[in-house]
Amino acid sequence: MHRMSDQPARWTQATVYPDMWADPDNDPRNKESASPDGELATLLDFLTGYRMTLRMKCEGLDAEQLARRSVPPSTMSLLGLVRHLAEVERDWRNWITDGEPVPKLYGRRDADFDDVVAEQAMVDAAYADLEREQAATDAALAEHPDLGERVGKDKTSIRELMVHRIEEYARHCGHADLLRECVDGRVGQ
């Protein structure tokens, strides 16, 4: 258990807007172009932004910091979030198919969080898993450009899958905000 004096001081790299993660000119989420046209393009733009935010929250940390758990009894860590999102990307492909489900990436339920260890090999594997699973789910969904199309055994709409993906990343980016602040005190959106 941490005493108050053991907690890192809150800080941000941002100087223009102190509640932001980075200054606008240094924030890769800021684009010089207008927002995209169309529903699908807008959904993909939000998904890209949240994916980038998760990576930004993990940047500059070592394996121990990424694996550091929040508060007992939670098993949540930044590395666990990366692994969890790789796992759910894989699971979303199961929603698309009528066939046999793809097996869990990390085996048993909750292994994405529970089995996290502070080793660089696990960090590297987690990022590789996330990139691979994102690309595979992106490719599977690209075959269904009609957001109203219903797919899979449950006849879930592509729109629902896209919105759920955004919601999942957004919710976990909120967790990442708090986890990062616990690790080294860095704050910002």
- Calculate the terminal CA-CA distance, rounded to whole Å: 27 Å
Cross-sheet strand order for the largest sheet: 1-2
Task: Please report which band the strand proportion falls in: under 5%, 5-15%, 15-25%, 25-35%, 35-45% or over 45%.
Answer: under 5%
CATH superfamily: dinb family like domain
Give the SSE string: HHHHHEEH
Write down the overall mean pLDDT: 90
Inertia-based shape:
flat
Pfam families: MST
Region (Disordered): 15-37
Protein name: DinB family protein
Q: Could you walk me through the main structural features you see in this protein, from its secondary elements to its overall organization?
A:
- The chain is mainly alpha-helical and 189 residues long.
- It has a single domain (4-184), classed as dinb family like domain (Four Helix Bundle (Hemerythrin (Met), subunit A)).
- The protein has six helices and two strands, in the order αααααββα.
- The model has no long low-confidence stretch (mean pLDDT 90).
